[in-house]
Amino acid sequence: MNPIFKSHEKDFMRIEADQVCVDYNGTVALYDASLNLKAGSICGLVGMNGAGKSTFFKALMGFIRPSRGKIRINGFKVNEAQKEQSVAYVPQNEGIDYSFPVSVWDVVMMGRYGSMNIFRIPRESDRRAVVHALERVDLYDLRQRPVGSLSGGQRKRVFLARAIAQRASVLLLDEPFSGVDVPTEKLMAELFLQFRQEGHTILISTHDLNHVRDFCDFVVLINKTVLAYGETSEVFTTENLNKTFGGMPPNPLSGPQSSKDFVNE
Amino acid sequence: MSELLISITPINWLLDPLTHEFMRRALMVSALVGSVCGLLSCYMTLKGWALMGDAVSHAVMPGVVVAYALGLPFSLGAFVFGVGSVALIGFVKQKSRIKEDTVIGLVFTGFFALGIVLVSKIKSNIDLMQILFGSPLGISRSDVNQTLIISFIVIFILLIFRKDLMLYCFDAKHARSIGINTGILHYLLLTLLSLSAVVGLQTVGIILVVAMLITPGATAYLLTDRFDRMTILAVISSSFSSILGVYISYWSDIETGGSIVLVQTFIFLIAFLFAPRYGIFKNQSLINND
Questions:
Q1: Is B21 on the interface with A (CB under 8 A)?
Q2: Whole-complex ipTM
């Protein structure tokens, strides 16, 4: 498959975050976070709970407005990129109400809503996209099942299929490996490599370091700010990981240099 | 009427009331209101807005009283206060540390009390009992027209935006990430809730209207795993309850609103006990085949 993207060159920047700061009612959640991700890359976003991972995600999805800095996706502002269906979000299993009366097919079709007219009536092309997405995650036979009757791994695959059906060039995945069985993990690994081949950019938020080593070309270590960023082999050092996970407490007064600067401002 | 009961055949039971104009009107309005509230109740139960429905339906009380006193359509006053209460709930929640359910309870009881005080103070022909308990058997022609107009507006909007609203209830984050304005959907749903509460209080009154806005949805939710089927089942059970409730009320001379809601509750109980997949006495073979 060769998705139609605005730009297909290898050096095209899909995600650009420049000195992004976010604060909630005066509490700093993220400070000076910068990140550039090329087309066709897989990047792990690693940090402790409360280190600003989900804040960074929310900023990339336009759910919260940075107090400073700018974010561009495929060169567009976030809300413009969303209207172009460029960003797909794959939620954590815990964030979904699985007793909701929808089938696997219904959920994957939701990935097409943004491309439909106001009545959201599926066209033949939408149905083809859904069939294709279901086949890629190996769920076509279960398409009529209610999502609540699926296993944890199958549930994760439904939302991956939704992102595939959306034909987004940027995929944001929130803890994709939690509660996932071995076959699903293998399938996801293959899918991620295919996505990279097709020029997608994948950002994976996780606290599971083994998966980052296995899957990710790049890694971002985050603790209120971007502590280190680069190719996985270079960034994944003991020293950096100590900084991220407790070597230094997430306290602005004794924390990383940039946070100290912020407090003094 | 009780001496009549002995000699009525089922056919007469159904047809006799239809000879009265007020009964034809009551049945039509109740069935329509049942459909509107039944449709919306699916979104209320799935979104978890039962308490919000309770709040809005009580908060419209002062609006109804003021509108009657000023000679305006009662639906206008009710709508203004319904939406106003929701805005106030949002404002108090945002500006204070009080939890949402407390704010909801606080605001709607305040509005409701204001309504009761206004009724006792404004000397007019407002019948408190009629507002509180509804009276579809005594509904006036102008009230029928209002109910018709509002019902069709609500049904029209729900049909256009049913998929967006369903997506909003299921996964608001995804809706936002594909460029859908979820803020507008939120207030659209609240507006529809206010409008439905307005038509609902015609038939069952302010106190019981929340039942119209949640019970059919809850019943349908126990019966199916498909959203479209859930809406159809909710509309059928809700309008059937309304019609049967009006008939029972006519023959047994009991309060109509209470009668309608009791029928709804009875249908829910049946679903709760015997729903094929989710009832207490569920069909084991259905589960095992999965």
A1: no
A2: 0.87
